[in-house]
Amino acid sequence: MGLSTVTPARHAEPRRLLRGPAVANRARRLSLHIVLIAGSLLFLMPFIWAVSTSLKSSSDVFVFPPQFIPEDIQWHNYPDAMTALPFGRYAVNTLFLATARIIGNLLSCSLVAFAFARLRWKGRDAVFFIVLATMMIPEEVTLIPQYIIYSKLGWVNTYLPLTVPSFFAGSAFYVFLLRQFFLTIPKELDDAARVDGASYFQVYWRIIMPLSTPALITIGIFTFQNSWNAFFGPLIYLQDRSLYTVSLGLSLFQEQYYTDWTLLMAASVAIMLPTLIVFFLLQRRFIEGVTFTGLKG
Amino acid sequence: MQPPRWTSYSPARSECSITWLPLWFGVSNVSMSAVQPVRQETKSRRWLLRENTAGWLFVLPWIIGFVAFTGGPILAAFAISFTQWDVVNDPVWIGLDNYSRMLDDPQALQALKVTTIYTAVSVPLHTALAFVLALLLNNPLRGVGLYRTIFYLPSILPVAAVAVIWRWVLSPQYGVFNYLLSLIGVDGPDWLASPSWALPALILMSLFQLGQALIINLAGLQGVPRELYEAAMVDGAGWWRKQWNVTLPMMTPYILFQIVIGFVTTLQVFVQPYLMTEGGPQEATLFFLLYVYRNAFQFFSMGYASALSWVLFMYVMILTLLILRSSRAWVYYAGSEKG
Question: What pTM was estimated for this model as a whole?
Fold first, then answer.
């Protein structure tokens, strides 16, 4: 690294004053980059490894030292893995579940958040407090009674246990996030609409909801991601293989092809793709969603 | 000097720990009374009455959901824990038998031990790593957005796929992890098949999922007032001293938040042992939830499984309360007299 690029030519100040800190700063930056690049490679390593394996032939997998770039690339591993089990079907199932849950969460959580952010009613703060407290309750405690209720209702082995709760504001976190967002909308809008004769529901539906698209999109993304990644709920409630989600499909796939690494990695990488695509398309919203509750009062 | 915004919520004033809840969830100013500006008093009583009704109507979905899916089931779980029940036949009341059975059940004790070790090691490591990483990523570097994305990504991927991939990464002979270790002259063990290395392997894997904590930390770092660093510089503090005496104290509320959330999350670990080790070898990774799952959905002893989950629930609550109590000594709230 030449020092000349550091020293601004125009303001030729005494060299020894400038040089010290500038060099130190450069060295610090460089070492920071080295640390971060090493860390990034380490974090990416499992995924690079998975992609690399998914494109190898079965014989190339057991080579030591491992090759990261396969000698001849076996694209067919992907269609092979996706058809060994009906992953297309699983993807459609999972998409259906995700869609139902997105609709449920968007409608119910926003209604509840509206009551907390825009309406004044007796007991509001107490109820809001209970909503927050439910975030601390681990799902395991409610797991067994819920299962028993659903099995008595005949809902086991259907999508109902996985979708119905989201229509009843099942996620306190989303309620909280929406409430925080609603609070940032000027209150005068509601009052003006009320004076014009709008009902509370109209205020909610015609004014608050359209103004809250960013927050609603964030919740949609989170719900999609959670539904796509969900494992425990589907494992307990879905028994018919034709109802399986992608994650359950992968689990079944692993049972049948326990050490067939090329196909296993192809299947794993493939079910990651939708999450990755959603992330890269809507990256900003992801980050905003996570930080929103932390930054804005 | 102007204190940062969120400090106007001063938990030091309240005695009851549970009122700190809003603080954990985002360390933001959610002081409840300040939610709405005081309305004009000109409104008629009828108007207010209608707003009252509307409020309850709008939260009705949540109330129904709470009774049906959360509050009701919690009480039911407690009741079920005193019975012997296979769902098909009627439950039989057996009093405290399920709880006394636990004391003689080596597997239950093992599950408690595994979960405790995992939590005790993973949560502090996780918190510390996410903090250091956030410090590094808080610099105005070229490509810092890309670095952040890379460190965040593993946290959003389907955990089942990640588990399957890690089984291969940790494969003893041909896995990439042992290959990397061999480059520095370490002969890696057969991680997942070794009773002593399986749990450390899962802890190691958990360190890759720190995206959420990272983002929360980055948000927190933005909120540390610049004046504090300038003041520290005037006092002649170097980089380390600034981090130790300014950044760390200012970040303690976020760290507390992550520890509490960490407790709740680590007790829900299921997919990794389920897909990677099946609780083995020799029950070295028999996580509590996996044991609850086995009892409930493989042996169909709902009563015993309920008792187990209640014990776990209490365990986490006690841990959380202890942390919150201790936090008075180490969490710094700017703007509160106690500090």
Answer: 0.82
* B311, closest residue in chain A (CA to CA): A141
For A82-295, CATH gives 1.10.3720.10
Chain A residues lying within 8 Å of B56, measured CB to CB: 115, 121, 123
Look up the ipTM and state it: 0.83
pLDDT tier at A19 (50, 70, 90 boundaries)?
very low
Please judge whether B55 and A115 are an interchain contact, meaning their C-beta atoms are less than 8 angstroms apart: yes
What's the per-residue H, E or C state across chain B? CCCCHHHHCCHHHCCCHHHHHHHHCCCCCCCHHHHCCCCCCCCCHHHHHHHHHHHHHHHHHHHHHHHHHHHHHHHHHHHHCCEECCCCCCCEECCCHHHHHHHCCHHHHHHHHHHHHHHHHHHHHHHHHHHHHHHHHCCCCCCHHHHHHHHHHHHHCCHHHHHHHHHHHCCCCCCHHHHHHHHCCCCCCCHHHCCCCHHHHHHHHHCCCCHHHHHHHHHHHHCCCHHHHHHHHHCCCCHHHHHHHHHHHHHHHHHHHHHHHHHHHHCCCCHHHHHHHCCCCCCCCCCHHHHHHHHHHHCCCHHHHHHHHHHHHHHHHHHHHHHHHHHHHHCCCCCCCCC
CATH 1.10.3720.10 fits B99-330, yes or no: yes
Quote the minimal CA–CA distance from B329 to chain A in Å.
23
Would the pLDDT of A56 be above 50? yes
